[in-house]
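Example (one chain per record):
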Amino acid sequence: MPKALRLSDFCAMSDDIIPHSRPYISDTDIKAVTSALKSGQLSQGPRVKEFERKFEDFIGKKKAAAVNSGTSALHLALLALDIREKDEVIIPSFVCAAVLNSVNYAGATPVIVDIEPLNFNISTASARGAITRRTRAIIVPHMFGCPAELEELSGLGIPLIEDCAQAIGASFEGRIAGSFGLLSVFSFYATKVLTTGEGGMVLSDSEELISKIKDLRDYDNRDSYVLRYNYKMTDVQASLGISQLAFLKNFIAERREIASRYFEEFKDCDFSLPFCKEGREPIYYRFVVKTKSKASPYLEKLQQKKIMCQRPVYIPLHLYFNLSGFPNTMEAWERTISIPLYPSLREEEIERIIAVVKEIF
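Predicted structure:
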């Protein structure tokens, strides 16, 4: 891979703190963005189309629509399915609020369900129990880079929207994540698997669905009026995405190599290591361990050592509504810790993380 420009190249990092996440930006990325700026085409244009084509090829879907965020991608995916008021969309509790927001943006009713206890993905049994005559879709996030139970979920007979924000390049039974759902969505936020700064993508084999999304993402110069949005990706963002996509396999290899070291070094630590069933190829977007007691005291100790570990999900969605009956989600929230793992970690940082984690656990 090209040499990365790290945060420390631009400003002194405070007391050698190792952040929880950090993007990998290379000289090649900077040249790509500079070229876009010099071209004078800054808004949506030919580089967006090129990024869409290249991402279609990578995932193996027929059509793609680039947008300005993963949340916008989810919102437009729901609108493309004509999901509206009184329709229900099933989502897991142990996920970021963007998933909930997208359902609310569409005016639909979010139906929140529990997760699997080992890999933290949406529970098929919970999803099955939540299906009603109003259920129109299930959003399936592949949490922390490990694919969800796609065969079982597909068997429920409800359209799946795969949320691959954390799992670009992961695979399930030899097929890449994002190739199973009727629609699949991706996020290219600053610290995602690959970045455009802010950005997202929707993919499908349905030309009709992607045509709807492309119509809805841009409101200008239309002969008829329907509610449309300013959800376009810019050519500047797409140029960075194209550059990053060229090195995605390297990014994933780096993640897996660091994860392999963590598995070996942490095998005697007093926590449970990440779990992904046989037949899945995770990418380790997050290295999430489960402690035997509440995680909060451990997080404080790690931060005192300047290792910025975090809860992998800030607050489970069901807590916003004071809902009960989510035992696996609550256990995961109270007892999980995400340990820094990303391609721009330096060797000395990896060694520090390993030493501090082993000292504490």
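Caption: The longest strand covers residues 135-141.
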